[in-house]
Amino acid sequence: YNQAHAEGAAAMMANVPGIRIVEEASVPETTAVAETMRNMIEIDGAKVLFPTSFGYFDPYILEMAEQFPEVQFFHAGGLYQEGMPDNVGSYFGYIDEAQYVAGVVAGHMSKTGKLGFVAAKPIPQVLRNVNAYTLGAKSVNPDIITQVIFTGDWAAPVKEAEATNSMADQGVDVVTCHVDSPKVVIETAEKRGIFSTGYHADQAPLAPKGYLTGAEWDWSSIYTNLGQQFVEGKTLMAGDIDHVLRGGISDKFCKISPYGQSVTDEAKADADAALDGLSKGELVIFKGPLQTNDGKEVLAEGAEYKQQDIELEKTDYLIEGVEGSVGG
Predict the structure, then answer these.
(1) What's the pLDDT at 328?
(2) Would you call 208 exposed, middle or buried from its count of C-beta atoms within 10 A (0-12, 13-18, 19+)?
């Protein structure tokens, strides 16, 4: 996750003259991030901030935005709502589209009908990814099951390895994840002789035998476009820049990794068809009838959520076909 953002920031600096970037990594989702933002503004002279971790938004970014109304704050994934400071914006990609396609591949390649998803925290973006991945797999095999295990933290390598091994022990033969660094999950899956699909960036070198594909970010376009607007003097406060910026595969916000050597032609064909449908806006991931894994209706027959529907950014459930609970 961090690497993908770093590459996007580098692209902005390379493509937009006049941009200077100050970076700080491994900042906790505590008052520490408020102190970091304050220092960047008061000491480094930052005029635009991009805090990228989920827990930075509320209350820390919102409080800093009140204190520094002339500084623009863009948060990755936060849900901007009317009434928030007008110098706050939110940007994110519909990477659940890429997860859906990866799920199609996983559905084809699984022999046991059991998929595994190692996740950090049950926040809306994570749950949306789990659900989309499962729906992609269910488009191939309606009876397939996704087991999800939450580690409780974005970086918990020991728990990530334990979760992957536990899944393999229970017959899961394709595993994926939504954690800060997928390295441990992908390498553990390879050691156990099961397939994997990646996240954030291409992890194929970590699992030359078992890596199938993955959901990748491409932050370069959004960072470059925003950078260009900054040097042109455009701001959130003046209404020149939208407070909510979103995009999917068609907008080049995300993509899938190249297919691994084990992926069958049939799996590739179905995944390519899904990719094409998503790119053209013809394939809808979340459509009825759809219910949660504890039997509550999400969407009735004939109803659907488009990617831009705000309800998807409030996802607080796991769909039918997922084993696990949002409680952990």
Answers:
(1) 63
(2) exposed
